[in-house]
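Write out the 3D structure for:
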Amino acid sequence: MFGILKSVIWIAGILVIAYFVLGYFGYQLNMDYVKESKSACEQRAKECSESLIRKGIDNVECDFVCVNRNLIIKKK
């Protein structure tokens, strides 16, 4: 139990340090990325499910990339 707590504290510390290091080098985290891209991702998921129903499993063509790292970490 103590090992898990210690690991969580280390990970949180590393994330905080990484946040400040990114800011130092002129990058900014887009904290609203999930809110901004949620509707587009839901639309793609809906289109993919409709395609799955129409074409079956073998012929599905889904471009299901909902995370774009270039939009999460941006240059200031």
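Residues 2-75 form one domain.
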